[in-house]
Design brief:
heterotrimer; A alpha+beta (about 375); B alpha/beta (about 300); C alpha/beta (about 260); B: about 300 residues; alpha/beta; disordered N terminus; C: about 260 residues; six-stranded mixed sheet; four-stranded antiparallel sheet; 10 strands
Chain lengths: ~375, ~300, ~260
């Protein structure tokens, strides 16, 4: 029975007790621990941290547990917590050129300084269900190779940069970086605001948009210049010290998409950048993000804007899954006042049509 | 280690520092004081330009978007420990969402709550204006899903902002024209657009058009919060609010062929309650508090007559 | 020259990087005068029309218009509100494809009435009366007033677009191939209608077309464009009957041979 409409207080309490009970599931089975979620469902934790815009593995694991594995709900939980946190300031920009590499691949060069490093990837698995996992089969621990990975390997786009084949990176300006969690977005939105919205945006939505771009709705001829995953240092300059100190080390996934650019009246043809960055290991998201980022640059590069993925207002207003989820689901709330208004109007219009029809018939008779 | 905050740099005032949070770890009424100050500035601007949508840095709330995040932020920014809060949804105090929001403020601000419109200093509402007339000093806070009245005509924010700036409201009028051409009357039942202070076309939020006349020159302050869309707007006390119409098709409100089945009122917005699956239905006031009050008074009179 | 011209173009040019849209176009248009601009596709005539009507930013020169309140004003420095106000009251723009100039989701009445409502009309009955009057003038049945444009033939859509533009009695109407894409018989009727209306209202027009028949019938004066430049201009009959420039001669001979 849908008890929602009247007599709410007790119903809400009962619903929440039932929810807690269902979350726990069968009491004969051990409760899942945050360590287990963090360690064994680590990609869920990574996604929740990325879209929740908060790097905290333990809290993200807690959110996943509390949300019963519903990752969008978990993102919402983490966001609602994040918004209450005091802000001490902004860190220095992280330097992905100085990364402890776990994985690094480029689709544009067969070999390159630093080499291709496959790392841990689903890519070449055969997607066969592994029944030894179902049987709780333990795997022997992997052995570390003694190959030393260079931690300062150049980024692929920098190689192109040196030849002038790649558009120059935007110079650092003194403008403060936009923050959508503090100010509402204004259009046209700067690239900082766009990238922030995309980083927080829903993976599924960005994936579909990036895909639409590849299928011809605003094609940008992308190449995966480089994808790299690993740990970077986060540095912060406390006011009273005046120099940077390392406050954390975080795992990030970065994707630099290289895209064709036809050139314009003032610029010769060259390659342009699309950028994606996520917390943890979210490779699919980072790639989709970089496709969408590049597509959203259409107007600044003088390209036609006619596909959804190139449309700032369309993409940025609809990328956030916490906003979308809330608004779609608010349709569950009572709307019976509005519905009553519609009923009154439609009844009146129908009555009028009936009356008119009657009058016509009388006239005809 | 202390580090200075980067935004909204002014320190909290003394009075605010003395306020105690009702739940550990959270500030009075949930939002931190800097955020409240930012929202109050937006409210002041909104009051200064009646009907104009002021962008604000809407925060993420522990409530889903579309469920009143804007209204809650506005209420949280104007509420003080001495305020008395009433929350309604569809006119009723006991619908789940109203209960939930009331609980939120009881928990985070420890304020008194009431179901009586007269006793409330702040009324937060979704989809109704109370039947009991509001008085000077009261604040009515509306929850707004889509603040832009022109959105159905023009989906682009950049364009609608321009249309407001230039008072290009012809297309809005055309949509009313089309209704009359098609249906013989303006067919908008709720979220019926209004012109505020002769200047800005404004969405009254999805209240029934029945409530539109109550907005006009209302002595209370009316504030509108749209959390997901990050907009605040306002109607200051005693401001003229006109529902759009044509000279020869003037605005009118819903009427019913019968009085409220519970209190006998003939001048209120009625809910239709379906009684069975054979077409049986009953109509009663959507404003539960107003209806209960009238019933109690009638019962009192009956007792008085009997004595 | 006295300051009585309605529209004045001085050295108008538009280039896209190295590519020239149009260049160094100067002329004056007088109230009630109809100017035809002809040339083959790619000659820059549509670019010029968009420059004149403030739909494109110029890269050279200026365009001035005699506004009702402030007199001659440079369109480029005019405020956006003033420019948008001009576009929906004092000007009209008839597109080649009626879909570009109509709101396909509004009824015929809504389409024609929109401009009236934009300038403050708030009496439904009066708006209907004016709309019906205009439907009559463009030879459309009153009974179609509540129908959507998509239910109309191409010729009817074009007539509806004309009514939508003329309802506020503009002083200047821009037309981009107004008869393009219509059957020859429909074209003739539309041209006849247009000629009657613009004469009756005394409205000035700038008409872009590749069809010399259109300008012969409608325009007082003619400009011939080739590769972004005006190669010849003068009174219509004079240019068509005694073309001086080789390109004009070619154009005229090609129509003769048809």
């Amino acid at each position: 029975m849908y008890v929602a409409v009247k007599g709410g207080e007790k119903a809400i309490e009962n619903s929440q007790r039932l929810l807690a009970d269902e979350r726990r599931g069968d009491r004969h089975v051990n409760e899942v621990t945050l360590q287990q979620i963090d360690g064994q469902l680590s990609l869920a934790v990574d996604r929740v941290m990325t879209e929740g815009s908060l790097y905290d593995r333990e809290l993200a694991a807690l959110a996943v547990k509390q949300a019963r594995g519903d990752l969008i709900e978990a993102v919402f939980l983490l966001r609602a917590y994040r918004t209450t946190l005091p802000r001490f300031g902004a860190s220095e920009p992280i330097d992905t050129g100085r990364m402890a590499i776990r994985r690094r691949i480029s689709a544009t060069y067969k070999d390159l300084p630093g080499g291709q490093i496959l790392g841990a990837s689903f890519d070449y698995t055969h997607r066969l269900l592994d029944f030894t996992l179902a049987a709780d089969g333990e795997r022997p621990e992997g052995e570390l190779s003694d190959h030393v990975i260079d931690n300062e390997m150049p980024r692929v786009v920098e190689l192109l940069d040196r030849d002038g084949m790649m558009e120059a990176e935007l110079p650092a300006d003194d403008e403060p970086v936009a923050d959508l969690t503090r100010d509402s977005i204004q259009f046209p939105a700067g690239r900082d605001a766009r990238l922030q919205a995309l980083a927080r945006g829903d993976e599924g939505f960005l994936l579909a948009l990036g895909y639409s771009n590849q299928r011809g709705f605003g094609n940008t001829h992308p190449f995966a210049g480089e994808i790299r995953v690993g740990e970077v240092a986060v540095e912060f300059v406390p006011e009273e010290l005046g120099f940077a100190i390392e406050v954390a080390e975080i795992t990030v996934t970065e994707c630099q998409m290289i895209n064709q650019f036809q050139g314009s009246a003032t610029q010769p043809p060259q390659f342009t950048r699309g950028y994606g960055l996520t917390f943890g290991y979210c490779e699919r998201k980072a790639m989709a993000m970089s496709l969408v980022d590049r597509s959203l640059r259409a107007s600044e590069l003088g390209e036609d804007v006619n596909a959804p993925v190139q449309d700032q207002e369309f993409v940025l207003y609809h990328a956030d899954n916490v906003e979308a989820s809330g608004f779609v689901q608010h349709l569950k709330l009572p709307h019976y006042i509005d519905f009553q208004s519609e009923l009154v109007i439609i009844r009146r219009i129908r009555e009028q049509i009936e009356r008119n029809r009657g009058a016509h018939q009388e006239a005809a008779e | 280690m202390t580090m200075s905050a980067t935004d909204e740099s002014a320190p909290a005032g003394d009075d605010e520092q003395h306020r105690t949070a009702t739940i550990d770890g959270y500030n009075f009424a949930f939002l931190d004081e800097q955020t409240k100050r930012m929202i109050r500035r937006a409210i002041l601007k909104a009051v200064a330009i009646p009907g104009y949508q002021v962008p604000f840095g809407s925060r993420e709330m522990p409530l889903p978007y579309g469920w009143g995040t804007g209204g809650i932020q506005v209420t949280a920014s104007v509420i003080g420990p001495d305020d008395v809060l009433k929350v309604i949804d569809q006119g009723a105090d006991d619908t789940t969402n109203a209960v939930n929001i009331r609980r939120f403020f009881a928990k985070t601000a420890g304020v008194d709550t009431t179901e009586r419109t007269k006793e409330a200093t702040i009324v937060q509402t979704r989809h109704r204006v109370p039947e009991t007339p509001l008085a000077e000093g009261q604040i009515l806070v509306y929850q707004v899903p889509i603040p832009e009245p022109l959105r159905w005509i023009e989906p682009r924010e950049t364009e609608t902002r321009k249309m407001h700036a230039l008072e290009e409201y012809g297309t809005m009028q055309v949509s009313l024209y089309e209704d009359i051409a098609k249906f013989g009357r303006i067919a908008k039942g709720y979220n019926y657009p209004v012109l505020v202070n002769g200047r800005y076309v404004m969405s009254p939020s999805p209240i029934p058009k029945f409530d539109n006349p109550k907005m006009d020159r209302n002595p209370a302050l009316q504030l509108f919060g749209a959390g997901r869309e990050k907009r605040i707007y306002a109607i200051p006390p005693h401001t003229p609010v006109k529902s759009l119409d044509f000279d020869d098709y003037p605005f009118d409100v819903e009427t019913w062929n019968q009085p409220c089945a519970l209190c006998g009122a003939t001048d209120t917005f009625l809910d239709e309650v379906v009684l069975d699956d054979k077409g049986g239905r009953m109509f009663c006031c959507s404003d539960t508090e107003y209806c209960a009050e009238r019933q109690a008074r009638a019962a009192g009179r009956a007792r008085g007559d009997a004595a | 020259m006295s300051g009585q011209s309605l529209l004045r173009a001085t050295g108008v040019g538009k280039s896209y990087g190295d590519r020239i849209g149009c260049r160094d176009v100067s002329f004056e248009l007088w109230p009630g005068e109809i100017l035809g601009i002809v040339g083959e596709s790619g000659s820059g005539k549509t670019t010029l029309l968009n420059c004149l009507s403030a739909n494109l930013e110029l890269t050279a020169g200026r365009v001035e218009y005699d506004t009702r309140v402030d007199g001659m004003a440079d369109l480029a420095t005019m405020s956006e509100p003033a420019r948008r106000m001009l576009m929906r009251t004092d000007w009209g723009f008839v597109h080649q494809n009626p879909r570009d100039g109509l709101r396909m989701n509004l009824s015929a009445g809504g389409n024609v009435g929109e401009r009236l409502m934009a300038v403050g009309a708030r009496h439904y009955g009066n708006i209907r009366r004016d709309v019906i009057d205009w439907l009559d003038r463009v030879e459309m049945e009153d009974g179609r007033i509540d129908d959507l444009p998509s239910t109309f033939s191409g010729g009817m859509q074009q007539r509806l677009q004309i009514a939508r533009n003329l309802v506020t009695k503009p002083r200047l109407v821009f037309m981009d191939e107004p008869t393009g894409g219509l059957d020859v018989s429909v074209q003739a009727r539309l041209l006849d209608l247009l000629r009657g209306l613009v004469r009756e209202l005394g409205v000035a027009c700038v008409i872009v077309t590749h069809d010399l028949g259109v300008v012969r019938l409608l325009s007082h004066r003619l400009m011939v464009m080739q590769r972004g430049r005006v190669v010849e201009q003068g009174l219509t009959d004079q240019v068509l009957d005694d073309p001086q420039h080789p390109y004009t001669q070619l154009l005229v001979s090609s129509i003769v041979s048809v």
